[in-house]
């Protein structure tokens, strides 16, 4: 089966950004506080900003020596020279996409929030990154490099940045680092953001972050093989409270045109939670007479009905997800390659899709690997000049 692949969760982290992303775009008034790359005598170059270390930069060759504790997609794909900054160099990234037979990437920026205690500096730093993402990077191939804007984790700043981007145009999705967002989503301060998302048609993403406050639990176990398994817990922990909040406080029901993508948190835990929410909804209405003189019950729809209308999830290589299609439905799951992260299946996306979906209906697979994304984001896949040949259905038997 030939089809266009659109990966709905891919990355451009701090280590792969050009060194001048912020120095070329932020006001000179910030001086040395502006995010910049600083060389280290006995270690890799680092991003420093506003007196804080943000993370490593790969543009300068450095090796810790010895075996690596974590392999990335580049390691598995035989890419040794990280100083090329392939993920952040549009031409090289497109070459990697071609190698993987993938037409489009939804490109998430750094999965760590911008660290600063200065709200004005924070606003300028987010705006500078987003402008670079859309004006310099995605503009090289806007049909293929689909940027995901970064929103500050506070309601007023997030609203201001989304409003600026919506007026500018060209943004299909924006990411809120939900693990560090404050206050919780039931707070009315978030309502203007939800209203604007509805009005603009921009999809809201919640993406797992690597360094949430909950990640402090990892410190005790660093250097232990067992720490590897804690990621499974961490991914769900970051999403559980805000996911339930979407239904408990009627956020999605009040905003029926607000679409949300939960990215890289797994999709297998979701069915039980939604099932339990439905049960609690039934229990609530079972005692509706109790609430009659207290303003009534605002939750008219079952959570599962709201979920199917407005919530999408990404997956990479998940037999579990394929077995849960009856719950999720064929239209609300979005395939991803997670390039170039350690969990990524690049450059073996075609093979992996065949291994995990080869037994399925070809038209369902066509939707999962690109068609659903095209509907959600308004993509015209008839323009795709890179297509994958997938071993699906009858072709699997022949193989």
TrEMBL record:
Per the record's keyword annotation, is Amino-acid biosynthesis included, yes or no? no
At the top level of its lineage, which domain of life is listed?
Answer: Bacteria
Question: What organism is this sequence from?
Answer: Croceibacterium xixiisoli
Which biological processes are named by the entry's GO terms? secondary metabolic process
InterPro entries named among the record's database cross-references: ACMSD (IPR032465), Amidohydro-rel (IPR006680), Metal_Hydrolase (IPR032466)
Which stretches make up the Amidohydrolase-related domain? Answer: 119-379
Q: Which GO terms describe its molecular function?
A: carboxy-lyase activity; hydrolase activity
Q: Which SUPFAM superfamilies match?
A: Metallo-dependent hydrolases (SSF51556)
Q: Any signal peptide, and if so, which residues?
A: none
Stored Gene3D superfamilies: Metal-dependent hydrolases
Name under which the protein is recorded: Amidohydrolase family protein
Q: Which residues cross the membrane?
A: none
- Tell me the keywords, alphabetical order: Hydrolase, Lyase
Upper classification of the source organism reads: Bacteria, Pseudomonadati, Pseudomonadota, Alphaproteobacteria, Sphingomonadales
Task: Give Gene Ontology CC terms.
Answer: cytoplasm
Q: Does the keyword Hydrolase apply?
A: yes
């Amino acid at each position: 089966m030939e089809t266009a692949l659109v990966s709905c969760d891919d990355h451009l982290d701090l280590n792969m950004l050009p060194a001048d992303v912020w120095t070329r775009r932020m006001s000179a008034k910030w001086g040395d506080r502006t995010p910049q790359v600083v060389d280290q005598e006995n270690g890799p170059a680092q991003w420093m900003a506003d007196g804080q270390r943000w993370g490593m930069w790969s543009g300068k060759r450095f090796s810790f020596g010895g075996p690596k504790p974590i392999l990335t997609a580049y390691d598995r794909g035989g890419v040794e020279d990280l100083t090329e900054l392939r993920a952040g160099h549009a031409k090289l990234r497109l070459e990697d996409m071609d190698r993987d037979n993938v037409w489009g990437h939804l490109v998430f920026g750094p999965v760590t929030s911008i660290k600063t205690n200065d709200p004005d500096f924070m606003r300028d730093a987010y705006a500078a990154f987003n402008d670079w993402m859309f004006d310099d990077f995605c503009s090289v191939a806007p049909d293929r490099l689909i940027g995901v804007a970064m929103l500050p984790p506070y309601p007023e700043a997030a609203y201001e940045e989304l409003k600026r981007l919506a007026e500018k145009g060209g943004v299909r999705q924006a990411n809120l680092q939900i693990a560090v967002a404050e206050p919780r989503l039931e707070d009315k301060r978030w309502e203007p953001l939800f209203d604007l998302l509805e009005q603009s048609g921009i999809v809201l993403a919640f993406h797992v972050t690597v360094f949430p406050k909950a990640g402090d639990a990892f410190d005790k176990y660093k250097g232990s093989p067992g720490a590897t398994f804690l990621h499974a817990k961490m991914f769900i922990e970051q999403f559980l409270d805000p996911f339930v909040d979407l239904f408990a406080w009627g956020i999605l029901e009040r905003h029926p045109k607000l679409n949300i993508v939960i990215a890289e948190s797994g999709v297998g835990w979701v069915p039980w939670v939604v099932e339990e929410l439905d049960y609690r909804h039934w229990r609530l209405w079972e005692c509706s007479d109790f609430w009659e003189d207290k303003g009534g019950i605002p939750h008219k729809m079952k959570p599962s009905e709201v979920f199917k209308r407005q919530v999408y999830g990404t997956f990479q290589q998940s037999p579990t997800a394929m077995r849960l299609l009856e719950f999720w439905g064929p239209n609300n799951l979005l395939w991803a390659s997670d390039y170039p992260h350690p969990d990524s299946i690049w450059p073996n996306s075609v093979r992996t899709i065949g291994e995990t979906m080869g037994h399925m209906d070809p038209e369902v697979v066509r939707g999962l690997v690109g068609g659903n994304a095209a509907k959600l984001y308004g993509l015209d896949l008839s323009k795709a000049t890179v297509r994958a040949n997938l071993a699906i259905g009858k072709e699997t038997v022949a193989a």
